[in-house]
Amino acid sequence: MVEQTPDSSSLAEVLDRILDKGVVVDAWARVSLVGIEILTIEARVVVASVDTFLHYAEEITKIEQAAIKAAPPA
Fold first, then answer.
1. Extents of the domains making up the chain
2. CB-based contact 25:43 (threshold 8 Å)
3. Which residues pair with 45 in a beta bridge?
4. pLDDT tier at 74 (50, 70, 90 boundaries)?
């Protein structure tokens, strides 16, 4: 017999919470050998509901545009 504890969450509840609040994974890695860059990986993953995304999309765009303007010329 398997008993469930009252504080356990079902998969549907976990997905609902993730889609409601959202999850952001931002990763950056660089591999170099003897000072020579061999590989660079940049990844940004956002999981959210459409409503949550639209709520924050305008602010995210402002932040990205400010970062581009602040970057030194190549």
1. 12-70
2. yes
3. 25
4. low
Helix (H, G, I), strand (E, B) or coil at 9: coil
The 10s digit of each residue's pLDDT in 24-64 is 777 888 888 888 889 888 887 777 777 777 777 788 888 88
The partner residues of 31 in beta bridges, in order of sequence, read: 39
Q: How many residues in the chain?
A: 74
SS (H, E, C) 10-26: CHHHHHHHHHHHCEEEE
Bridge partners of residue 39, in order along the sequence: 31
Backbone angles phi, psi at 23, to 5 degrees: -135, 135
- Return the axis-axis angle of helices 11-21 and 50-70, rounded to nearest 10°: 40
